[in-house]
Amino acid sequence: MPRILHIPRRFALDEWGGTESVIYNLCKQQQAHGQHPEIHTSRALAPVPREVWRDIPIRRYRYCYPFFGLTAAERHALDKKGGNLLSLDLFWHLLAARDVRIYHAHVLKRMGGAVLTAARLRHKPCVVTLHGNIFDVPAAEAASIVEAQQGHCEWGKPFGALFRSRHLLDEADAVLCVGFSEYEKAKAALGHGRVHHLPNGVTPEAFAAGDRAAGRQALGWPEDVIGFGCLSRIDPQKNQLLLVEAFAALVAARPRQEHRLLLGGPITAPGYLEEIKSLIGRHRLEALVTLHPAVVAESSQHRNLLAALDGFVLPSRHEPFGIVILEAWAAGLPVIASNIGGLAQLVSHERDGLHFPAGDAAALCAALVRLAGDAGLRRAHAAAGLAKMTGHYTWAAVDARLEQIYQLAEARHR
What we know:
Layout lengths: L2 E6 L9 H15 L3 E7 L7 E4 L2 E6 L10 H9 L7 H9 L3 E7 L2 H13 L4 E5 L8 H7 L11 H6 L5 H4 L2 E4 L2 H11 L4 E3 L6 H5 L3 H8 L6 E6 L8 H14 L5 E6 L5 H13 L6 E4 L7 H8 L3 E4 L8 H8 L4 E4 L2 H6 L7 E3 L4 H12 L2 H18 L2 H19 L1
Parallel strand pairs: 1-2, 1-5, 2-4, 5-6, 6-7, 7-8, 9-10, 9-12, 10-11, 12-13, 13-14
Antiparallel strand pairs: 3-4
């Protein structure tokens, strides 16, 4: 059976994020339909060359960042987020791969160009997924991604030219956008008719079995407190600092009711975590806020922590889609989200969630106060969110649409 090669910039189990979740779940769906998906990636943050994880083969290759004078700390920062790496090892293995049906790149720049070049030399289709990283990224976010390489002379530009990295999206057989906002912008910018909107999904049963009592016991929360949480990357993009500010205001506004806040997920910005801890200390919230960075994605631990909550909050500054919202809906939670990017389309204000203007702590506090004080509203929004997720955002539905796109890419490539 021909292989489907998924190529992300990295696939580190200890640094789980939205991209890892998308690729893993697509691979599981493809396996269920008799396909043979594999993950080929760099060794960034995961030095194990080969492993089989949950039945998915993963192969990782040597790589470098082609800049003179990078420190170990700067290389680590690029590993964490956005590094434009070079892996000739990966390219040669992709070129030598046999029985390939589709090369599916989840990365751009040099690495994406290498995927396209290997696909073209092997006369196979190349599909590219944009995980919110080119047409719909705020300037400040884009600048933070390349901050670690600033001031260093780059020696890798010839490889970008060799792999035609700048032509990746023009020449790919299909370009997929997880966010609708990015889809609209990509469609207008590229103009070749091969841009598709393919949202993320969730496996409902993976989150429906959460144990609230076990989650609360693990957190040390009494049953009668109102608990909010954000289980996502600890990163300035997610804006947990704003959530702490709003939570402090919530505690002051409702002194007769006890509240708790959970912040959990992989740490992509250690300095930002320290800022969060400092703000918690300034507001004297140490007894009310739980930091839980070691959350194993889609595990019983993850399910139980979600079940322990009464509401989920995603206060992002920038968000192409917001897969954690789907996870919260699958766990039966009401949600509050900033009204930017993909969140503006995903969450319907006053129907299956509450929006607030991005960056507005007072507005977020008002949403928290409203949800905390209205159990009926929490139940109504949770039920509506679960219905939306079940009807439109299961991985089975996403995979069925992806298969249609694969077939279009194959037809174009013949």
